[in-house]
Amino acid sequence: IKSISLTFVPAAADADVTVSGTIKAADVATIKAAGGSGVLTANVQAAEADQLNSSLTTGTSGDELNLVVNGQTALATDLNSLIAKTAGKIKLEATNVTGTFAQLEGVYVTNKAQYSGLGNETITITGNPTAAQADTIADATSGIVTASITADTAANLNAALNDSGLQVNAYTFTVNNDSGATLASDLKALD
Questions:
Q1: Hey, which of 3, 62, 107, 149 has its CA 20 to 30 A from 114?
Q2: 116-142: buried (b, 16+ CB within 10 Å) or exposed (e) per residue?
Q3: What pLDDT digit, counting tens, does each position of 28-56 carry?
Q4: Is the CB of residue 140 less than 8 Å from the CB of residue 164?
Q5: Angstrom distance (rounded) from CA 49 to CA 55
């Protein structure tokens, strides 16, 4: 095994730096310190979202860091924080994403273009999203979505939960009594 030593030659304070190959997230701070405030372009070694987030202390939204998020579960809060640390693509390889609706909306709706690899992971929505919110997230993946949905009438739940995917989601919810107007067909459709 060869030992490789990196020596950084100080550059102009605003020089752009491009690194070939793959670097560790922790190396970004060293490279940024040597390269100043210019744009850093690099491929960063795959890691879990929380590890990347805590290691990339000096990355900025102007840097072109290509990130790969691996591991079992990624928190949507970490994925959203990574957006502020790179203008590059964030490839999602984690098999589950967990967060509130607002956090998940940041990943799957608002900033969707900054990610690659989205759409096949399972998602857990914490809190109590509305049926429409759960459906918005379910439309963004072919994986199973788990959520405890805010109580509503059968008709309203049925109208909102019109997921475009073919997956059978793991929703729990309470059907409110709507003055006896609940139709059996609405209840059956929720099954």
A1: 149
A2: eebeebbbbbbebbbbbbbbbbbebbe
A3: 988 887 766 788 999 999 999 999 999 99
A4: no
A5: 10
